[in-house]
UniProtKB/TrEMBL annotation:
<dbReference type="GO" id="GO:0016020">
    <property type="term" value="C:membrane"/>
</dbReference>
<feature type="transmembrane region" description="Helical">
    <location>
        <begin position="186"/>
        <end position="210"/>
    </location>
</feature>
<dbReference type="InterPro" id="IPR002549">
    <property type="entry name" value="AI-2E-like"/>
</dbReference>
<feature type="transmembrane region" description="Helical">
    <location>
        <begin position="12"/>
        <end position="44"/>
    </location>
</feature>
<protein>
    <submittedName>
        <fullName>AI-2E family transporter</fullName>
    </submittedName>
</protein>
<feature type="transmembrane region" description="Helical">
    <location>
        <begin position="130"/>
        <end position="153"/>
    </location>
</feature>
<keyword id="KW-1133">Transmembrane helix</keyword>
<feature type="transmembrane region" description="Helical">
    <location>
        <begin position="222"/>
        <end position="244"/>
    </location>
</feature>
<dbReference type="Pfam" id="PF01594">
    <property type="entry name" value="AI-2E_transport"/>
</dbReference>
<keyword id="KW-0472">Membrane</keyword>
<keyword id="KW-0812">Transmembrane</keyword>
<comment type="similarity">
    <text>Belongs to the autoinducer-2 exporter (AI-2E) (TC 2.A.86) family.</text>
</comment>
<feature type="transmembrane region" description="Helical">
    <location>
        <begin position="287"/>
        <end position="315"/>
    </location>
</feature>
<feature type="transmembrane region" description="Helical">
    <location>
        <begin position="250"/>
        <end position="267"/>
    </location>
</feature>
<feature type="transmembrane region" description="Helical">
    <location>
        <begin position="56"/>
        <end position="83"/>
    </location>
</feature>
């Protein structure tokens, strides 16, 4: 009975974890992201501790690094809006007073006043929604920061406790899965940043080739939008195409949709992510792409991290099972007289 007590406590722990997930469903995404970020920051905290910083100071410093990373991602949009606001207003002043749309013999005239009225109504709706959501967002950001700090402060004890629940014969497998999870999470965040950098580089070339003036500004906005799931740079391209249609330049609208949509919105996800996944996460590009797309469509923004992570852990589990069963990974025939499975 004594030997089974830890596993009883493990079952109780799993039950409470399930209850917590149900009760905290509205912030489950925030908790998940906090766990993944803290998981990646543990080596940094340990490095600071090795330089004689206290656990509390090292955890706080690592949490500040995470906060600075978020600010670095979002800051370019704010800076660009501040620096280019007058140029945006000048472009808006070039819009015609009315646009005539003809389709299948039907003619419809849209005036600028009507567009402005619709735009103001939309802005008011967005403003009200943002004002309503702002307290929730602030609470979630605060929760995110506290969780990252708390996990860094006491994460080692949690890890040792969970590892202690694993039978001794399988702890090497648990350690391997832990290492794969850390490597995969690091690779996912690196891939996200690399995709944004690649989008910026491609955007510079594409927007310059299409003849735009503010090439660096447009490429920067496209790169930052790459961090937004599902929509990404497509929002920028759609806005640019709508402006060209409004001023009557249909050729430019078609070019920005076709060329920009392919090279800026679609190509980085297809070209950069799968290739770097093999190098950084030791995960075939096809498997990473399946995890990325499947997770995104199934779970939303959380799926960008959870999808590839689950696929990577599945691949690692298959490798561990193959090693346990002594399966030849090269596909060759087994040595004569060797059983694929040892019987006790």
């Amino acid at each position: 009975m004594t030997a089974s007590r830890p596993y009883v406590f493990g079952g109780v722990l799993a039950l409470f974890a399930l209850l917590a997930a149900v009760m905290l469903a509205d912030v489950l995404g925030t908790v998940f992201f906090a766990i993944t970020v803290a998981y990646l920051l543990v080596p940094l905290r340990r490095g600071l501790e090795a330089r004689r910083a206290s656990r509390w100071v090292a955890s706080l410093a690592a949490t500040v690094v995470a906060a600075v990373g978020v600010v670095v991602v979002l800051a370019p949009l704010v800076v660009i809006l501040f620096l280019r606001l007058s140029d945006i207003l000048d472009l808006a002043a070039l819009l015609p007073d009315a646009v005539t749309v003809e389709f299948l013999g039907m003619v419809e005239m849209v005036t600028l006043d009507e567009v402005v009225a619709v735009g103001l109504g939309l802005l008011q709706s967005v403003g009200r929604a943002a004002a309503t959501a702002a307290p929730v967002v602030l609470i979630k950001l605060t929760l995110f920061g506290f969780l990252v700090f708390a996990l860094l402060l006491s994460g080692d004890a949690v890890g040792r406790t969970l590892l202690a629940l694993v039978p001794t014969d399988y702890r090497d497998a648990a350690t391997a899965l832990n290492e794969r999870a850390r490597e995969t999470l690091f690779a996912i965040y690196v891939l996200q940043a690399a995709t944004a950098v690649g989008t910026f580089a491609i955007g510079l070339v594409v927007f310059w080739a299409l003849g735009y003036d503010y090439v660096v500004t447009l490429a920067t906005v496209a790169a930052v939008l790459q961090f937004i799931p599902i929509v990404g740079p497509s929002v920028l391209l759609a806005a640019m195409a709508a402006y060209h249609v409004a001023v009557g330049d249909l050729v430019a609208a078609a070019l920005v949709v076709a060329v920009g949509g392919f090279a800026v919105a679609w190509l980085p996800d297809i070209l950069i992510r799968p290739r770097l996944a093999k190098e950084t996460a030791d995960l075939p590009g096809s498997l990473y792409f399946v995890g990325f797309v499947g997770g995104l469509l199934s779970l939303g923004p959380v799926g960008i991290i959870a999808g590839p992570l689950v696929v990577a852990l599945l691949a690692e589990s298959v490798d561990l099972l193959g090693a346990e069963l002594r399966v030849d990974g090269g596909g060759g025939e087994e040595a004569a007289g060797d059983d694929p499975v040892e019987t006790p």
